[in-house]
Amino acid sequence: MKSYAEWLAHWGAERDVERYEVSRQCHARMWARRAETLSAFPVWELCLGGYWEENVEEWTTRWTNSGGRLFESTRMLAAKWDPIWTRLGTTFYDGFNSPHPPYAKSSCACWSEIDDDEAIVLGVITEEEYQRETASCRPREPISEAQRIALVQTLHEMEVEAHALGGPKPGASREERFLHRRSREREEREKSSRAYAHRAEVGQREWAEKNAAFRLMEAVEQSLKLQADVADLARWTWLCDSVRRLTETRHFDAYENWRARAWLASADLHKIAGDAVNELGCLEFALRLNEKLPVKRRIKALRLSL
Prior knowledge:
This protein is mainly α. It is built from twelve helices and four strands, in the order ααβαββαβαααααααα. It has helices at about 5-10, 15-30, 55-65, 85-90, 115-120, 125-135, 145-165, 175-225, 235-250, 255-275, 275-290, 295-305; strands at about 45, 70, 75-80, 110-115. It has a four-stranded antiparallel β-sheet with strand order 2-3-1-4. The chain is elongated, with a radius of gyration of 35 Å. It starts with a helix and ends with a helix.
């Protein structure tokens, strides 16, 4: 990934201003509406490198100097109500005095929302903090026992359905749900990695086969050019087999000129074999594929001789 200076040199200052403004507006909306998603996603993660490679050590130092804690070595996680978000934009010389990203001109960091299970299991917030800060998100009016039972039953049915689709088991704890999601994410990454490796292998094999077809076509043409008659049975067999494969290969489907050259080589073989009828057929087919081939006089002569 490019550095900020390389990105700026490539895209220009105008694009940088545009990128900054889009990021500022997006995160300003997230900041203004943070209470709406507080119950489901009580924590933000500051993620680096959205557009260019950022100095991880620099930002983790800024993070810890602002009073933040690191989780899983380098993850910068904090509750949405944590004052660190304001400190990041006001503590350092290049800050924008803003409680949301971007926090500096050379930064393309962004927020990623973290759900309550992961936040509590990792220790970013406690269960007590979560219940206290999200109390306003829960209904204030008491519900009847019948309503409570109906809600519990609905929740159980949803958990059973989710489990049938690959989710955690019904009644799983926060830690179990978190570990299950981590396991699924790891499986998805491994699956994606295998799929990418397979596509790369198939693409490389396809390229090698296509390249071999083009090189074979050149070899056949060179062989016929150097020696028009075929006295060697092994060479004749190789030429016939090669031309057959070249006229049938799918690698020439997008290259009609090369396909025409293959049929022209086939016509030359039929000429060597003394088969004027098939020679004519091959020449006419090659001409339909490429009208610029200099074979019209040869076709005319063959028609007159038949």
